[in-house]
């Protein structure tokens, strides 16, 4: 996994956390859910990239 991908995935994860926190602060369930979804998507990308990296080593 390239460093650019890692940075992009982490930025997406942090953006999701920010959306979730804003949704919690403003009692906005849609924004909270969108933030949680963004975090799950970013985490799934991280897992996929880690699997690809594991296969590249062999």
Automatic annotation (TrEMBL):
Pfam assignment, any one: CsbD
Spans annotated as Disordered: 1-58
Highest taxon in the source lineage: Bacteria
UniProt feature, compositional bias: Basic and acidic residues: 7-20, 43-58
SUPFAM superfamilies, A to Z: Hypothetical protein YjbJ
Location of the CsbD-like domain: 5-57
InterPro entries in alphabetical order: CsbD, YjbJ_sf
Signal peptide: none
UniProt record similarity statement: Belongs to the UPF0337 (CsbD) family.
Name under which the protein is recorded: Uncharacterized protein YjbJ (UPF0337 family)
């Amino acid at each position: 996994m390239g460093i650019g991908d890692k940075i992009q995935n982490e930025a997406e994860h942090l953006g999701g956390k920010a959306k979730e926190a804003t949704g919690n602060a403003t009692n906005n369930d849609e924004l909270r859910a969108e933030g949680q979804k963004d975090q799950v998507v970013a985490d799934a990308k991280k897992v996929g990239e880690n699997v690809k990296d594991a296969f590249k080593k062999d």
